[in-house]
Amino acid sequence: MSHFDLTDCSHRRFNPLTGTYVLCSPHRAKRPWLGAKENAGAEKKNTYEPGCYLCPGNKRAVGNAINPKYSTTFIFPNDFSAVKLDQPDYVDEDSEGKSEEEKKLRKRLLITKGVRGKCFVICFSPNHALTMPLLTVNEIVGVINAWLGLYTDLKRQHFEEGKPYKYVQIFENKGAAMGCSNPHPHCQSWCLDTIPTEISRELSNLIKYKAENGTHLFADYIRLEQLEKVRIVLENDSFIVVVPYWALWPFETLLIAKEHLRSLEDFDEKHKEDLASILKKLTVKYDNLFETSFPYSAGLHQAPFFGSEDELDCSWFHAHFYPPLLRSATVKKFCVGFEMLAEPQRDLTSEQAAAKLQQLDSETHYSQRK
Fold first, then answer.
1. For the structural domain made of 45-86+114-361, what CATH number should be given?
2. Locate the Galactose-1-phosphate uridyl transferase N-terminal domain: which residues (predicted)?
3. Is pTM beyond 0.70 here?
């Protein structure tokens, strides 16, 4: 070999959002579709399930709560919330009676902070069978309006009612492979009194990048992707979807606002329509890749309700999609071994994954073909 070939030589790719590296080993699997193609087939779901605690009119999982006969997007507080709003402040009572040395070491090493917040479930539709790619663009706009309504209401509650809210994380776990406990299409929103670790890390790196270069990282990255034109999966007036250069998951994508929108609050109707359109196209591509209801974890990253001037200025609306499928509908990537103990690793290059996604139909879902 006379030159370094990114499609054949092992190398590390830097993720500027997290300040970490991903080991890329393309020589192990040069094409994502090598091996037998295992088709899981279309998942058959009824439009209504009497035993589903998210369907309209049904009893929920705990207590005596009954869902209303909702006809559009439906939001309610999570019955199994990961955080509590009303709880006492944390005090390290276990330090009482300890020696001064033990107290000092506990303070250094056993660091605990109380966290308050509230969690919500957002049902996309009353229809039990309609995942994101099967919704209409107008229906997805309704979901986006629900996200926006929740964001603005929780922010209002902080400033007007003194609720301890600072950041709201909206995310979807789609499919059993990603731990989704109920197949009724829905996403979640966890609102905390702190900025979670991943978002905090991103903001720190976005602030650092602007301080060092005088420009926004996402503005520069969008321009670079538009110049190179190899990792772009989808694009419209308001948003771009790429397989990021530093992707870990086989068909990971990054959806980025093309202008400096800090949060959903900055959206106008055109932004909402464009986001709905590109979300539908992306998820249709995902389902068409292996002709299955494609599992993923996805989430929005946007500005906190309040923060430093730098945090608010460098916040840039974007969304991450982390799907686990590798070669077929039943072959998944696992982060084990070296990845758990040393560094994240992938076999497929971002460019190879993008090429595969680029050629897929984004208009017609595989289940709707004759």
1. 3.30.428.10
2. 4-196
3. yes
